[in-house]
Structures are given as structure tokens and as C-alpha cells.
Design brief:
The chain is of the alpha/beta class. It has 14 helices and 22 strands. It binds zinc ion.
């Protein structure tokens, strides 16, 4: 059989494997390229197959860099099944139409510029309608059970602990076991069970995002956050936490709830309002309360007993835009958790516009800020920040708390791959910047004597 690497090869986005045998053609993941403009351009490259010829697609988890090119395939004629977990389906029902909306808006803005320059207009990568149509092909299956796809292929999902519903995918085909790690979670998640360690596979396709580093700050992340919030409240300031709406926001709420409730009832954090101001985060939190595969037992127990892990006394979810605007009409201390996580769009922008020029404000970053993002400029403490065409002086105190990543670090990756009963024929090292993946390759080969390979984008290998 042939495997072609259509994304996340010597890079971290666009995950997509195209597998061909004499009888079948299918994909594992169909992610969008993200990041700088040269990466984004790769989304326009045609697929090396006719979407109508694909038998099925498997999605490892709901992050757009693993799912975001699916609407292109369904629009262009794919009519097979998309296998995924129930939670991946529910979260993709939120994320894919949102991605369609972003493409529509970006295209509209680009076309305004092109019109002025006398150039032809362009079409969006896909629309909200295309994204909604792609959802109708979802075929959720459970984790931990072998599913027979046809006479020759079976599929098995194991918990990956990276995002709600995330899985490692095992495919049995032609007497071989192929394992696609998807993104590998960390053992430090408060919400998700740790990733399931593989014991057997012939070929492994493994992510290596953090193959060169250790997350030493993980254990202190919530205490650090708590301390900064407390310090800012004492100065009567407002705290703004830009957070990705799916995953990171729920992680923050649960971690804060645990700390606040552990402390005394007189805790000053109980006296100030916390707001989650992101409609997408509100919808995602509903999924976190509903689709519980891979979730820690204590959280499932809480949900069943209606203890509500993602709520606490002084936390309010803001749905209406008018209520979101009202949050900036008083200067009382508050905590605002809002999206987007990189400050490029969404309600976070008008909060930043209102509070960035106040030295009592704290902006706390708990996630990656890409090079060209507004979040990176604020994080770098640029003195002037342009929001909605207005230059705002950045007087806020800026904090970055590491350790919130949903990816395994080097030690966890080595642990994940280190329990195999016999050596796999080959391990393909994926989903990492080249230098990082090469650093991991040296370590994993020295430690376990495995045969590894770092493929190039669009390369085809025979296995
Ligand atoms: Zn991911």
C-alpha cells in the first residue's frame, strides 16, 4: 500500500494522510494549513485524487488543523462516511461552520482590496454552507471497540487525551496494523484521561510537536494564574485572558473553580465577577457536559450528580453581544475570559480596546501566539496596538503562563512510544518543526533503537 503525506510533514498544521491499496483509497485527517501566508496558500493546492474515489475518511480530533479541509472534499464530491468520535462530531459542528465563516469574511475583505486594484474577485476556500454540508457525512463510533469497516479493513479508536474526543487511530489492513497517533495529549490534563499507550503496531505515524522540550511549568500553571489574578484584583484592575474557545476555556474554568473552592469562603476571588464571553465557548462547554468519552471519572461523576464542573458561583457566561459591550461600561475589577485565543477576532478585541491603556489591567496569555497575530504584538509589549483601526497605548501588565499545552512533551512522547512489545517496522515522525522532529528522532533512535523516518510534504512511501 502507498501512504502520501498531505500535511503536517516537517510542520505542525494541515494533518492529512492519503492511503491507497489496490482496492481502497482513504484519508486519515483532512486538516487545514494554518500560520503564515505561505502555509495558508497550501490549502489551495488540489488534492492528488478525485474526492469521489475516496472510500472513507477518519478524523482523529476536532482541531481545524486536522479537519479544516473536509468541507472542500464534500463540496467536490466525496460521499463516503467520515468516522470520528461523538465528541469530535459535536465539536466539529461548532468549529467547521465557524471556519467557513472566517473564510467568507477573509474573502470579502480581500475582494474589497482587489476591486480597488482592478483585480478579479476570488472565492472563499469554502463557505458556512459547505461546512454545514460536510457534517452530514459524520458517522460517530465509540472508543475502545474494533469496528469492521468492510471485509478487509477494521478501525479502532484509543483515547488520546489531547482534546475532548481525541483519539489514536488503529487501522488493520492487509494483515498489518497502522497506528496514527493524531495529537498526543499530556498526562497533566485535569479533564481528560491520559493518552493510551500503544503496545503493538507495524507502522506508526507519530506527532512530535514538543519533541525537543519538557513542560516543566505544568504543575504550577493554575497557582500562577491564581496569584496573578489576586495581585491584579488587589490593585483594583481587570484581568483579560485570551483563550481558545474549545478546550482551553473549559480547562481554565475547571482549574480556577478547583482552586477557588479549595480556598476559604472569604477568598477575594469569590468577590469579583468572572465572565466567559464567547458564544463558541458556551456551545463547546455544552459538549464538554454531554459527550464524556475519555473524560476523567471524577468529572463524569460530578456531571451525573449535577455538580457542574464548568461553573462556579461568581462565573457568568455571556451570550448576547449587548451584554458583552456592557462589561466595559464600568471599571470594577473583573476577570474576562474571551476568544479568539490569539486576539485576531471575536469579542476579545473590544475588551482589549477598552482596557489595554490602563496600567491596572493584566493580560494573561495561556496559549500559543503565532508570529503574525495581534496577541504576539501584545505579548511582545509593543507600545502601540491597533484595534478596529484605532491606535491604543499598551499600558497593561503582560503575563505569559506556560504549561497549558494539550500536547505531550518530550518525556511523555518517549513514554508513549516506549512500551511496544516488539519493534514496529517503521515510525514516521510527523507534526513538528523540522529541527524539533530531528531532535526527537535522535533521542528515540538512541533510546529504543527504532527505525524512524521524517517524510517531506507530498512524499509517497510504500509500506
Ligand atoms: Zn490538536
Amino acid at each position: 500500500m502507498l501512504v502520501q503525506f498531505l500535511g503536517a510533514a516537517q510542520n505542525v498544521t494541515g494533518s492529512c494522510y492519503f492511503i491507497q491499496t489496490e482496492k481502497y483509497k482513504f484519508l486519515i485527517d483532512c486538516g487545514q494549513f494554518q500560520g503564515n501566508s505561505s502555509e495558508i496558500k497550501k490549502n489551495l493546492e488540489p488534492f492528488p485524487f478525485n474526492p469521489q474515489e475516496l472510500d472513507f475518511i477518519v478524523l482523529t480530533h476536532a482541531h481545524i488543523d486536522h479537519t479544516g479541509r473536509l468541507p472542500i472534499l464534500t463540496r467536490d464530491g466525496f460521499i463516503g462516511r467520515v468516522y470520528l468520535t461523538r465528541a469530535t462530531a459535536s465539536l466539529s459542528e461548532i468549529l467547521l461552520p465557524d471556519s467557513g465563516k472566517i473564510h467568507e469574511v477573509e474573502c470579502e475583505n480581500e475582494n474589497k482590496k482587489r476591486k480597488k486594484a482592478g483585480l478579479d474577485s476570488i472565492e472563499p476556500l469554502y463557505t458556512v454552507e459547505d461546512a454545514n454540508y460536510s457534517l452530514s457525512f459524520f458517522n460517530p463510533i465509540v472508543m475502545g471497540k474494533e469496528i469492521i469497516i468492510n471485509n478487509d479493513i477494521s478501525l479502532y479508536f484509543a483515547n488520546a487525551g489531547h482534546l475532548l474526543g481525541s483519539t489514536h487511530v488503529y487501522i488493520k489492513l492487509n494483515g498489518k496494523i497502522l497506528l496514527f497517533s493524531g495529537d498526543i495529549g499530556t498526562e497533566h490534563s485535569q479533564i481528560l484521561n491520559p493518552p493510551e499507550i500503544p503496545t503493538e503496531a507495524d507502522y506508526i505515524f507519530m506527532e512530535t510537536t514538543y519533541g525537543d522540550r519538557l513542560h516543566s511549568e505544568m504543575n504550577n500553571r493554575f497557582q500562577n494564574l491564581y496569584n496573578i489574578i489576586k495581585e491584579t484584583i488587589n490593585k483594583k484592575g481587570t484581568i483579560i485572558i485570551p483563550a481558545f474557545a474549545v478546550g482551553r476555556t473549559q480547562d481554565l474554568i475547571y482549574g480556577l473553580k478547583t482552586l477557588i473552592e479549595k480556598n476559604s469562603t472569604s477568598d477575594s476571588l469569590l468577590k469579583i465577577p468572572f465572565y466567559v464571553d464567547s458564544p463558541m465557548a458556551i456551545n463547546a462547554t455544552k459538549v464538554y457536559n454531554k459527550d464524556l468519552e475519555g473524560v476523567k471519572e471524577n468529572i463524569i461523576k460530578d456531571i451525573n450528580e449535577k455538580v457542574h464542573p464548568y461553573e462556579f458561583k461568581n462565573l457568568k457566561f455571556i451570550t448576547e453581544a449587548k451584554d458583552s459591550i456592557m462589561l466595559n461600561k464600568n471599571d470594577k475589577s473583573k476577570v474576562l475570559i474571551s476568544a479568539s485565543g490569539m486576539c485576531d477576532a471575536g469579542r476579545i478585541l473590544h475588551h482589549l480596546k477598552a482596557y489595554l491603556d490602563n496600567e491596572k489591567t493584566a493580560i494573561i496569555f495561556v496559549g500559543y501566539q503565532s508570529e503574525e497575530s495581534l496577541g504576539r504584538k501584545i505579548k511582545n509589549e509593543d507600545s502601540l496596538i491597533s484595534i478596529y483601526g484605532k491606535e491604543i497605548t499598551n499600558k497593561a501588565k503582560i503575563y505569559t503562563i506556560p504549561g497549558f499545552s494539550g500536547h505531550a512533551d518530550q518525556a511523555e512522547l518517549l513514554n508513549w512510544i516506549g512500551k511496544l512489545k516488539k519493534h514496529p517496522k517503521k515510525i514516521f515522525l510527523m507534526h513538528g518543526d523540522l529541527k524539533v522532529t530531528q531532535a526527537f528522532q535522535i533521542i528515540v533512535e538512541n533510546k529504543y533503537n527504532y527505525k524512524t523516518y521524517i517524510p517531506k510534504l507530498y512524499e509517497i512511501v510504500e509500506i
